[in-house]
Amino acid sequence: MPAPLLNRQRVGLLARGVVRRSRKARRLQPPFPFGAPPVPVTVDAVEPAQTLGPHYDSEWARRPSARVARRAIVEGVLRPGLAVVAKPERIGLDRLSELDADAPTIFVANHHSHLDTSLLLTSIPHRWRNRLVVMAAADYFFDKRVKATVSALAIGAVPMDRYGTGRASADQAAELLEQGNSLVIFPEGGRSPDGWGQPFKGGAAYLALRCNAPIVPVFIAGSSKVWRKGQRLPKPARTAVVFGEPVHARDGETTRRLNARVEAAVTSLGDEFTSDWWQARKRFHQGDAPSMTGPRASSWRRAWALGDRTTRESTRPSWPR
Prior knowledge:
globular; disordered C terminus; alpha/beta
């Protein structure tokens, strides 16, 4: 049989299958008024409003009752679970003493694991934690109704369109800051695929300049050993959350320069954690701090160069209050 005739037969079979499925779907739909009313042929059907992804309305999760429930989840579920699985050590909390607790603050951290959000929620002091909002990927945390509801309630997540070109997410984040909330932002845009950091995007720097808010750099170590990207279940390991000196925007500073300073601050905290404060500060001011993004090489070379940069002999963790 000629090839064109075979192709026409296949197309015909596929078309008949689509028609049968559409007819079956129509039979399963309840009739009006229990279902949607029929749309006349001459009228354009109105597309239903999108309620998931970046369009998910999370305002309900910032009401007083939701904040009380979230605090119970953080203190009663996340904190005991992390104490067993991650054994977190908190370092540098004294560096936040000069910040105004009533002023909105942006906490910026590296991102290696889904555990990072829980580590920050249980490490950031209560004076910010009660009004803390996590900017989360809309395509991952808000793609399904149940996941979106749990994310908004348990961690105070707000959808952020990390692939969009509009300014809707930035405007929403700026509005949250103006309302007195503090933000948690992972400027890498996603979890590290291999344990090395990724270049920072400028969203946090833009918000700091727009809303005149300080940025607190945070380095999270060891979370990828507990629950790395692609790993199904966590396994116990030690982690650390290192807070740095707040970064304030300078007069006339651009978003790019402020973003570079914030990324350098987080990189220096990683150097401080694996060595000591004095050596890290010397390398920071000399511009010789180890790169957080790793060498530009093959995967095995990057894995070899990564070594054991996320562990050190740690003391008993302290829980901030």
